[in-house]
């Protein structure tokens, strides 16, 4: 379970500081698929970045399974990301000089998994996302949907408890976007992980358990979908 307790984020600036999040309090249940929706600039990416430890709240507190991250330093966040948090982005963020398999293997190498298991695991997760035939391709030789599948495989490889996805279908055509949504939803159900996804896609709602709508840096509505 993830708890945000009065989380605010102000981006400092000499003349125009931006309050990107205002007193956000919410609970995200373990194993749920939650959507983060709302107009451009309402604070979705900021919220995801705080949950991934890529940026720090200005005030308030984030708890993972009742454990506070208030006094986490960079090393604590790095350790948490390597073991428990996968991230997926709109522009895939794959390393262009590494093959699909090498991109997926990288987080496992970085956290020091046993060498003989790394390649096996990388191949297995790529097969799971339907890319067993593209292991040696560089990202530049893959389609957008295939690149996003590699990114999902890379995030999935560490068997995260939490997957954060920032507009993962924002750069894909609607059919490919649907496929990627279906893949993310089925991975969430199959592995019991928690998925929090920022999106503008109405199509995503049918897969979700909860929809959080934000407006002007605040939560406007929380909708449970039965
Ligand atoms: N690094 C930054 N420095 C200053 N202001 C920022 C920074 N990042 C975001 N902002 C501002 O914070 C607000 C929230 O931005 P955020 O990226 O979280 O919005 P978003 O909901 O993800 O929008 P979109 O749907 O366009 O991706 C915006 O007003 C934005 O201009
Ligand atoms: Mg955004």
Note the topology.
Elements: E1 2-11, E2 18-28, E3 33-37, H1 44-51, E4 59-64, E5 67-68, H2 74-84, E6 85-89, H3 100-110, H4 115-128, H5 144-157, E7 162-166, H6 174-191, E8 194-198, E9 210-215, E10 218-224
Parallel strand pairs: 3-8, 3-9, 6-7, 7-8
Antiparallel strand pairs: 1-2, 1-4, 4-5, 9-10
Magnesium ion (MG) is lined by residues 44-45, 166, 198.
Describe this structure in words.
The chain has 226 residues and is α/β, with parallel strands linked by helices. The protein has a single domain, classed as Rossmann fold (3-Layer(aba) Sandwich), CATH 3.40.50. It contains six helices and ten strands. The chain has helices at 44-51, 74-84, 100-110, 115-128, 144-157, 174-191, and strands at 2-11, 18-28, 33-37, 59-64, 67-68, 85-89, 162-166, 194-198, 210-215, 218-224. Strands 6-7-8-3-9-10 form a six-stranded mixed β-sheet, sandwiched between helices. It has a four-stranded antiparallel β-sheet with strand order 2-1-4-5, with helices on one face. Strand 1 and strand 2 form a beta hairpin. It is globular and about 50 Å long. The two termini are 19 Å apart. The model has no long low-confidence stretch (mean pLDDT 95). The site of adenosine-5'-triphosphate has 10 residues, from strand 2 and helix 1. Residues 11, 18, 20, 40-46 line the site of adenosine-5'-triphosphate.
């Amino acid at each position: 379970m993830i708890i945000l307790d009065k989380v605010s984020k102000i981006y400092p600036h000499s003349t125009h500081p931006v309050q990107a999040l205002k007193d956000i309090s919410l609970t995200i249940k373990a194993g749920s698929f939650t959507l983060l929706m709302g107009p451009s600039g309402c604070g979705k990416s900021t919220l995801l970045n705080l949950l991934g430890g890529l940026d720090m709240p200005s005030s308030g507190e984030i708890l993972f399974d009742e454990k506070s991250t208030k006094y986490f330093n960079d090393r604590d966040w790095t350790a948490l990301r390597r073991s428990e948090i996968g991230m997926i982005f709109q522009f895939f963020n794959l390393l262009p000089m590494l093959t699909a398999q090498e991109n997926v293997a990288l987080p496992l190498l970085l956290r020091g998994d046993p060498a003989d298991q790394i390649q096996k695991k990388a191949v297995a997760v790529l097969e799971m996302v339907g890319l067993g035939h593209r292991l040696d391709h560089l990202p530049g030789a893959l389609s957008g949907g295939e690149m996003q599948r590699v990114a999902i495989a890379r995030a999935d490889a560490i068997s995260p408890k939490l997957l954060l996805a920032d507009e993962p279908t924002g750069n894909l055509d609607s059919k490919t976007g649907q496929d990627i949504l279906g893949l993310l939803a089925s991975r969430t159900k199959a592995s019991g992980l928690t998925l929090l996804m920022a999106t503008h896609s109405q199509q995503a709602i049918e897969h979700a358990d909860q929809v959080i709508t934000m407006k002007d840096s605040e939560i406007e509505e929380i909708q449970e979908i039965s």
